[in-house]
Amino acid sequence: MPGPSLVWFRDDLRLADNPALRAAIHRGEPIIGLYVLDEESRGIRPLGGAAKWWLHHSLASLGERISERGSILVLRRGPAAAVVRDIAAATGAGAVFWNRRYGGAEREVDTEIKTVLRHDGLEVDSFAASLLFEPWTVQTGAGTPYSVFTPFWRACQSMPAPRAPLPEPREVPGPSTPPASDDFDAWQLLPTEPDWAEGLRDTWEPGEPAARARLRAFLEDDLGAYDRARDEPAAGVTSGLSPRLRWGELSPHQVWHETVAHRGSGAHAASAQRFLSELGWREFAAYTLFSAPDLATKNWRSEFDAFPWPRLNRSHLTAWQRGRTGVPLVDAGMRELWHTGVMHNRVRMVVGSFLVKNLLIDWRHGEQWFWDTLVDADAASNPFNWQWVAGSGADAAPYFRIFNPELQAKKFDPHGEYVKRWAPEYSAGEDPQPIVDLGETRRAALDAYDAVKRSR
Predict the structure, then answer these.
(1) Known catalytic residue: 278?
(2) Which one of 363, 369, 388, 422 is the catalytic residue?
(3) Active-site annotation holds for 205
(4) Is 90 exceeded by the pLDDT of residue 62?
(5) How many helices (H) and strands (E) does the chain have?
(6) How far is the C-alpha of 65 from the C-alpha of 209, rounded, in Å?
(7) pLDDT at 335
(8) Quick one: which of 98, 170, 308, 348 has the most CB atoms within 10 Å?
(9) Is the distance from CB of 385 to CB of 289 less than 8 angstroms?
(10) Is 313 considered catalytic here?
(11) Predicted TM-score of the model (pTM)
(12) Is 54 annotated in the active site?
């Protein structure tokens, strides 16, 4: 049927390599962009504070870019099934396009909307945009999901190469009478009382143009050292792309193909291969979420339901959250997180291990804190990585792997540069006592994990 095309943006806040937008342009009718802030549909997890900050600025950037090309980004708040149907009816839309999501609640919402809109006579289609490989296309020889990363990634690499990115449209033709949009400021995505986002503003510029500039800078300046220095938190050779991918300001296809183009040979090629495997780890997290939609709340390995968590020590949890544990590398990491909304990956493993295996605090408390404070908080990667550290997840770290934060600091921050930047009191001669004894708590953790083994 004729009528404008509705493009429902979600975790794909970009114009380039956006298959849903490309389908709408090919259809040839006016285009209306739509973003729905859905905190009401059953099972949809509300965003954390740092993620809301990023979303505000990324949406503002996307709205400006769509407007420059002739169309509009409509903002609405409410349950997505009702909002999308209402907008489609009010505008006389003939088609609705979106890019797929892979969480269980999100898939249920999308299936409901697709069914209802098709019943209403609209053309509806969804597209692969946020993953290199659709989860259902990668299976073991027995037809089951992979539970270990290496064979999963090997299977992915044996498949046809990821498709080439789609070009950015020069024009996005808009409707003659656009629908009303919510008052953006009324969404209150930015913190005000207090305004704790100064560090985020100092660190980031959300939006597609900045994301593409960051990718180019990383490939040109840092990729060559990635394999050698990626574990050194003071080295500054991480890509900085995790929030860009989480919000879809870049697609993994763009990152993949531009990295391959910069791959070169020798050490540079090894660094590129290592970096591409990090994209693979992101894929594996989403792949696991697809088959285990309760990943943020339930142990992937059911035997860990028997883990004897002690009663929550709230003072220990608060000390960890605030970076006041008396352990330099842990405190530096937690303060970096609070200031910038991210944390170096090596340090994430250390602070996660310290919470779960030295403080014996359930990994779900850490996952929730990261969900609220990370700008790249992702429904797949965040719980997946926490379960990896805890030992309860897919391809998890062995239960006996307890990261010693002192040894990790000596190995990866030997000159104390990272700790000096984020927890300078330790470099100034202050020596706060750790809130727990690392050796004693390590032994207690191993005893608890042995209890899980005996319960099988």
Answers:
(1) yes
(2) 363
(3) no
(4) yes
(5) 20, 5
(6) 10
(7) 98
(8) 98
(9) no
(10) no
(11) 0.96
(12) no
